Amino acid sequence: METQEYLTEARIAVLLEKKKQYHAAMHQWHKARLYALVRANQLWAHARADFCNKQHEEEKICHKN
What digits encode the pLDDT tens for the residues 35-51? Predict the structure, then answer.
């Protein structure tokens, strides 16, 4: 069973991703990971944070060009 805090933070992260607010979503996934008890959810939150970080970095590069 997972904590309500993880579920809440993960839902917020998903909404931020859908809005393409990747930098905020990355931080939100890190926050969600801190609340996760289930190892699979810890790994998922870490993977999503990495993805969001990569998307954010790509956006910065695209905006410079």
Answer: 999 999 999 999 999 99
Of the candidates 7, 8, 45, the residue with the CA atom closest to the CA atom of residue 29 = 45
Amino acid at 11: R
The candidate with the shortest Cα–Cα distance to 55, out of 27, 25, 31, 22, is 22
Q: Tally the domains of the chain.
A: 1
pLDDT at 65: 62
The H or E element spanning position 63 is helix 39-64
For 29, the domain range is: 4-64
Phi, psi of 53 (to 5 degrees): -60, -45
**In angstroms, rounded to a whole number, what is the distance separating the alpha carbons of residues 20 and 38?**
27
